[in-house]
């Protein structure tokens, strides 16, 4: 479910700098302007800019605390306008220099959000933890609620939807401000989508949208409209989804948030393509790419390139199709790398926290030893021997934890390369290894071949028997195909029900033999235990470097087309890339 990977970037900017004023005021006019700017910081970028211009003119008569509040508003304005690196730099300087805990706390929250947007995940998590460590010393209840909200948003972004939902519900149980309550509703709806719950009930999202719209909060309300449109489109209500997005597109454009704008246009491009309106689909895809920024969002770019690739195929424009497919593959790889980086950063953060606690414990033990050493300095040699034994014990503890750290690092490296369900290479690791094998084959003037396979009617198995059965089938398929591979062949799961085998030193006939053996092994899988009365089948596509060259993307594209041709010709068969390209309309995976 791809919507898990993408919904937080604009929302992180929205809530990052809750600047409710606690400081004592020496300049009432400045405080009034600050309150006005803080109230409008997410509702009206233009009014925020006008208020900041007035505040800048009063800098000479402002107190140091008021100046830092103005600086925080400038940092927030940088986030709103997409200048995330500059916003992070300014917020870090405020965090380092401010003696006031509330301002330091707000600056840490802003750093956590803007760093997450720029994919500096470790920096973001570290400052989120700094902020949560100060929360007991923050007197403002609304600001403490803001910290819970930021934690919920960031945990959603890191894919930890259970934690995100927990903090959102924790805030909803309190007497939160209308604005915080609105955003907490949005975060809870997002977590619900990420966890796959309440997918058949629109009432929660509709009520949350109405609440945020009543508070004049366009960003959270339109984020939820985007989720709702995806839900409707997944049910086949594509026209209804288009109508919803189109109705609020001007409102989204007015927010100036790159991610939200790109998301709306990319969804419209997808849905117009599904309804056959190629011109409208192309227009929205091109707007997505024009307005897009690889430092702002990735998923809309992936979707836009995929739409343009499919439009080019429908128009028989092979050159454009190849170029768009290449860009689609690059963007999708970047997206998957980002997901992996977020997951790794979260795990690394948990590990660093554990190490920190262990280091504190070790230091406490060392301090105990030092005190004992002072007390035992006047005692006999027997006591000295006891002290030595205690020191050796501490060294042993340190060595043990060093060993544990090394084991955890090795575990993380394996998790980054292996598909957790089937135990074979995941998409990213398969591609890296395949590119290296193809480079060696090219240098040695050896031929290589790629086999792609996609399970037939797999969605029917999931719908009829449940996802646990679907996972069982995927494991059986992985075992069956692994048995058909030759020694030295690469085998990986590309995602969902799609697998790939790269065989080096073999020609197209060797690839077809491997594919046929896989096909026979799949048919031999005993499905009686899951009460499935149909054999497991797949559609296979084969391509060879002799026809496609040693570039992975080109080899993958031709094998992919051959696989789609196998599906178009009736499934449960093997098709190979031929000398003359055969254009077959891409169909959705069964």
Automatic annotation (TrEMBL):
It comes from the Bacteria. Keywords: Coiled coil, Membrane, Nucleotidyltransferase, Signal, Transferase, Transmembrane, Transmembrane helix. It catalyses: 2 GTP = 3',3'-c-di-GMP + 2 diphosphate. GO terms for molecular function: diguanylate cyclase activity. Residues 446-579 form the GGDEF domain. The chain crosses the membrane at residues 386-403. Gene3D superfamilies: 3.30.70.270. SUPFAM superfamilies: Nucleotide cyclase. Residues 1-23 form the signal peptide. Its EC number is 2.7.7.65. SMART domains: GGDEF. Residues 322-373 form a coiled coil. It is an enzyme of class 2 (transferase). This is diguanylate cyclase. The lineage of its organism: Bacteria, Pseudomonadati, Pseudomonadota, Gammaproteobacteria, Lysobacterales.
């Amino acid at each position: 479910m791809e919507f898990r990977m993408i919904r937080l970037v604009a929302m992180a900017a929205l809530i990052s700098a809750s600047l409710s004023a606690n400081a004592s005021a020496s300049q009432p006019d400045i405080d009034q302007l600050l309150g006005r700017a803080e109230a409008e910081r997410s509702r009206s970028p233009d009014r925020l800019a006008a208020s900041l211009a007035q505040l800048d003119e009063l800098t000479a008569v402002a107190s140091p605390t008021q100046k830092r509040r103005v600086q925080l508003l400038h940092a927030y304005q940088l986030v709103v306008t997409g200048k995330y690196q500059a916003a992070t730099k300014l917020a870090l300087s405020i965090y380092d220099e401010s003696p006031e805990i509330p301002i330091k706390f707000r600056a840490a929250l802003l750093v956590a959000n803007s760093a997450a947007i720029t994919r500096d995940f470790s920096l973001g998590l570290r400052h989120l933890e700094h902020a949560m460590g100060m929360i007991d010393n923050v007197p403002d209840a609304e600001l403490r609620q803001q910290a819970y909200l930021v934690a919920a948003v960031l945990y959603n972004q890191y894919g930890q939807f259970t934690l995100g939902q927990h903090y959102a519900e924790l805030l909803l149980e309190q007497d939160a401000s209308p604005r915080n309550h609105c955003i907490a509703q949005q975060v809870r709806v997002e977590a619900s989508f990420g966890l796959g719950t309440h997918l058949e009930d629109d009432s929660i999202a509709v009520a949350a949208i109405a609440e945020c719209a009543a508070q004049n909060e366009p960003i959270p309300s339109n984020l939820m409209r985007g989720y709702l449109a995806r839900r409707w489109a997944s049910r086949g209500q594509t026209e209804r989804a288009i109508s919803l997005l189109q109705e609020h597109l001007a409102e989204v454009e007015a927010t100036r948030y790159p991610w939200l704008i790109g998301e709306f246009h990319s969804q419209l491009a997808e849905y117009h393509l599904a309804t056959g309106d190629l011109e409208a689909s192309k227009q929205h895809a091109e707007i997505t790419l024009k307005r897009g920024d690889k430092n702002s969002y990735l998923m809309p770019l992936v979707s836009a390139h995929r739409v343009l690739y499919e439009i080019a195929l429908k128009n028989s424009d092979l050159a454009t199709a190849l170029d768009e497919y290449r860009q689609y593959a690059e963007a999708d790889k970047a997206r998957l790398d980002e997901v992996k980086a977020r997951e790794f950063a979260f795990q690394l953060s948990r590990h660093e926290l554990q190490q920190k606690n262990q280091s504190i414990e070790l230091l406490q033990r060392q301090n105990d030893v030092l005190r004992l050493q002072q007390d035992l300095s006047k005692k006999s040699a027997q006591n000295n021997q006891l002290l030595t034994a205690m020191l050796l014990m501490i060294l042993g503890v340190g060595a043990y934890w060093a060993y544990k750290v090394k084991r955890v690092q090795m575990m993380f490296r394996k998790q980054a390369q292996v598909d957790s369900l089937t135990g074979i290479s995941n998409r990213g690791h398969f591609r890296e290894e395949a590119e290296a094998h193809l480079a060696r084959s090219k240098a040695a003037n050896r031929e290589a071949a790629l086999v792609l396979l996609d399970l037939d009617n797999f969605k029917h198995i999931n719908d009829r028997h449940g996802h646990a059965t679907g996972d069982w089938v995927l494991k059986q398929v992985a075992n069956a195909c692994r048995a058909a591979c030759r020694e030295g062949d690469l085998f990986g799961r590309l995602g969902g029900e799609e697998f790939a085998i790269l065989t080096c030193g073999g020609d197209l006939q060797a690839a077809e033999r491997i594919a046929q053996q896989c096909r026979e092994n799949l048919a031999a899988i005993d499905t009686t235990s899951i009460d499935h009365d149909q054999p497991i089948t797949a559609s296979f596509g084969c391509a060879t470097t002799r026809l496609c060259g040693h570039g992975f993307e080109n080899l993958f594209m031709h094998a992919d087309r051959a696989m789609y041709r196998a599906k178009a010709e009736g499934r449960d068969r093997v098709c190979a890339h031929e000398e003359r390209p055969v254009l077959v309309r891409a169909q959705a995976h069964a």
